[in-house]
Amino acid sequence: MAKKPKKQQPGGTPATVALTAAGTAFTVHAYDHDPASPSYGEEAAEALGVSPDRVFKTLVADVDGALTVAVVPVAGSLDLKALAAAVGGKRAAMADPAAAERTTGYVRGGISPLGQRKRLRTVLDASARAHATICVSAGRRGLEVELPATDLAELTGATFAEIARSA
Length: 167
Description:
alpha+beta, five-stranded mixed β-sheet
C-alpha cells in the first residue's frame, strides 16, 4: 500500500535552501519514511506514485582517490566502470559511507546532489534527459525534490553520461 505524501515542514534542508537561493523552480515531496525499507529510492517512488525510472538516487563513489557523485535511476544500478570513464578515471569503487556522509553533510539514504558541504564532481545518468522532471533526495530520508534534470545539472555542475545499468 502506497504511503500518502505529507506536507513539507518549515525550515528546509541545505538542498532546498540551495534551490531557493538559486531561484530554481522545484516541488518538494515528503512522505513517511519506513526505517525497515530495503531501498530508500524504491520506497520514495512507491510513496510518491512516481515511476522508478524518474526517481534518482545519489551515490558517492571513489574514483582514483577522489569522491565523485553519481545520480542514477532507482530502477537500475551504478556502472562503476562507466562512471570512472565519464570522469576520465581508471578505477571506481563505492565510497566509504562515513566519508560520504562527512563530505556531503548528509546521512546515507538522504544524500542529495544539492547543497552538499563540499561540492563534488557530479555525473547524472543520461536517461534523466528523457523526463520533463526527475526526483532526487532533498537531503533527508522521506523528502524528495522534483525538478528538470537540466536545472539539476546546472546547479551541481554535473555532466550527463550513461552510468546506469538496467535492473
